[in-house]
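Reopening this ticket.

The earlier resolution said the output was attached, but the attachment link was broken on my side. Pasting everything inline this time so it's all in one place.
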Amino acid sequence: MLVGGFLLLIKGADWFVEGASSIAARLKVSQLVIGLTVVAMGTSLPEAAISISAAFKGSAGIAVGNIVGSNIMNIGLILGITAIITPLAVQKTTRRYEIPLVIAITALLMFMGLNNNVVTRLEGAVLLGVFALYLIYTFKVVAGENVDEEGAMPADEKSMVRIMAITVIGGACIALGANLTVDGASDLARMFGISEDIIGLTIVAFGTSLPELVTCIVAALRKEADIAIGNIVGSNIFNILFVLGTASVIRPIGYESEFFADSIACIAMPAILFLLVINKDRSLKRWGGAILLVCYAVYFILFNLNNI
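Inline output:
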């Protein structure tokens, strides 16, 4: 169930992003808009599906662990690997606003959760409100760019019916994959006597981070690595504000005290990234990627491996 769920999530996200990108191409939306919205949010669809499904089923450990674990993994493991393949250029707005925003909203989530060990519906609504403001900011940034006709997405030759079918099928695969993954992860945790928190922070987090990993590595190999950090940072923002915001509005989510160390790591990772990209070349260099990988390895060994 777990493996089948992961396969459906990955392929479903791929089809959904392909369909959404094709629709945007038909509407002549710029590549910048697609990168900031469809790519970042599309690669986060597995996390969204898993955590929202877990909220419906009352599996708070998986709902929170999946997001916290994925956000740590996105920066430490995925950006670390990608930067070692090729140095990653960092946009000015990403350095000035988006990376600090990730640090701030992670700290906000930690405060909400550890205040009374639950993220309430009201707090979830606050997260969604901040997400709405982030979207407004994103589109204002896009509006401020002078995008010519060459910057628009190339027109897609597929028929609109086929494009819509790909999008709908992709969404259905994501929903089914999320259901299978949550059930499989919960059963696995019970079978081996491991808490749902640990399963969410490790196995589920890795599975749902695969789209980000594939996207970043492919971008690096195609010498388009400048989108990698934007994709990861955008995904982390989406994970906390939209995914956990939506999940906690559906049903208040328990935030166990065991998540304290992981929450600190979730704040530390983007803070380390911020320090690594403040340099003359404005990029995440190969040695910076190695530092991120070492930091992730230390976190995993100290907190998760011992618990498992």
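Reporter confirms the inline version is readable. DSSP finds eleven helices and four strands in the chain. Residues 185 and 203 are 8 Å apart (CA to CA).
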